Amino acid sequence: MATINADRRLVSIGAAILLAAGLFWWSLSAFSTFAISPADAWAGVFNSGQGAGTSARIVAHIRLPRALAAALIGGTLALCGLLMQGITRNRLASPTLLGVTGGASLGLAFVTTGLIVLPFGHDALIATILGGAFAWILVFLLGTAWSLDASKGRLILAGITVAALCGGLTRLLVLLAEERALGMLNWLAGSLSNIRFPEVQIMTVVFIAGLCLSSVVASRLNLVNLGNETAHALGVRLKLLRAIVFVAGCIMTGATVAVAGPIGFIGLMAPNIARLFVGADYRPLVPMTAAVGAILLLAADIAGRAVAFPAETPAGAVAALIGAPFFLFMARGQR
Fold first, then answer.
1. How many domains does the chain have?
2. Is the overall model pTM greater than 0.70, yes or no?
3. Is 242 among the domain residues?
4. Residue-wise pLDDT tens digits, 97-137
């Protein structure tokens, strides 16, 4: 039976990766004002559009980095949500519902509007990481997450409250510094339309690091799932594990917000969908969750182009439309 289950998990993971690859390829040509043929897509991906027509160059310089970013950001947010759910033993935990995304957005708003000037480079990335870290600490304090008898509902309630506070402050900053923050309006909806290869390079590093870390701590998260006391008795250093997940979660969420803006609910949906196919073992959950996250954001980006073509709806808005009812459905099953 164990062998059969393992085979089914491998098939599920393989199918998810193939589906993500299919959506990636479709994303290169889907809903474009310029007709893009499979040959154009091939030339754009493998020949950088050189010696080809306008459509191939559009693929090479606009569609390809956008599709890569969608897959990488979706996978990163999904893994971040999986780590958060594992360390809190709460299937509702995610960067959005724990306020990390909201805090990261607020940090970037302070820097973008010029209200805070950081004395080092990469201001946007550092600001989002610090903002997310501040929000997460506040949520854990309000939700008493470090207590062994902490209420899961209280943690999520604290996260929603902090997220709402950060969201309100972010919009207030945009209104008060309108001339400097006009470019943030599209960013606040979670748009992938302006992403280019430098942002893809950042997300590639963050995603690979997040995937490696998640794979390393997967067995420990399986023990945490048995309970904090049991995990401690089996040799898991809970404080160190929580600190690692905290730092990783802030960096992963901060990077996605800095690149594409706040994209909600991917970190909630992907791990829970992945569990339906591979079960609760975190070792197969890691690759499956990453693949599902890529699928969700690629699909959201394609759907965003289709809704009001030739105009575009930001992928973050589409993800929120799907994620909100998903959250309500999941919340019904939580005590």
1. 1
2. yes
3. yes
4. 888 999 999 998 888 777 777 766 567 888 899 999 999 88
